[in-house]
Amino acid sequence: MPREFRYRGYTANDLINMPYDQLFQILPSRARRSLNRLGAEMNPGKKVLFEKLKQQRETTKTHDRDTIILPFMIGKKLSVYTGKEFVQIEIKPEMIGHYLGEYVSPIKKVVHGTPGIGASRSSLYVPLK
User: Fold this and answer.
1) Given this model, what pLDDT does residue 82 score?
2) Has residue 24 been placed in a domain?
3) What is the mean pLDDT of residues 61-88?
4) DSSP characters over 8-69
5) How confident is the model at residue 102 (pLDDT cuts 50, 70, 90)?
6) Scanning 33, 47, 49, 106, which has its CA 20 to 30 A from the CA of 119?
7) Number of structural domains in the chain
């Protein structure tokens, strides 16, 4: 039997139906402060993103990596911009309270070519056999 997800003692359905002021109390302090600031004056980009997510679109593209994942986003697909391309992620219950940018890294692993003829000055001293 699969284990049911719980966030600080609440199931995913409880979190979705929970009023926002109660939800804000169980989130970590950094997320709580950020969301309280959002309530006072919501960034137009975040407002548009939340409206698009509530419309049940297939995939929503966003540049807002600093958006906190809320329970109503569970099951939605987002394409988050890394600075070069959009990377698609699906929101899972375990992601609640985290930022979108935590799941999409803008840094790629550097892959260098093999040294050979004409690669660089340092490759003159590498045996080619």
Assistant:
1) 92
2) yes
3) 91
4) TTEEHHHHHHS-HHHHHHHS-HHHHHHHHHHHHS--HHHHHHHHHHHTT-SEEEE--TTPBP
5) very high
6) 106
7) 1
| CATH number of the domain to which 66 belongs | 3.30.860.10
Q: Has residue 96 got a pLDDT over 80?
A: yes
More confident of the two residues 65 and 1: 65
Residues 55, 31: Cα–Cα separation, whole Å: 24
Alpha carbon 32 to its chain centroid, in Å, reads 17
In a domain, 121, yes or no: no
Place 114 in a pLDDT band, splitting at 50, 70 and 90.
Answer: low
Pairing, β 59-62 against β 77-81: parallel
Contacts of residue 91, defined as CB under 8 A and 6 or more positions apart, other chains included, come to 69, 73, 74, 75, 76, 77, 78
Whether 95 and 88 have beta carbons less than 8 Å apart is answered as no
Tell me the β-bridge partners of 60.
Answer: 78
Please check whether residue 129 lies inside any domain of the structure: no
Query: Whole-model pTM?
Result: 0.76
∠ CA 79-83-89, rounded to 5°: 20
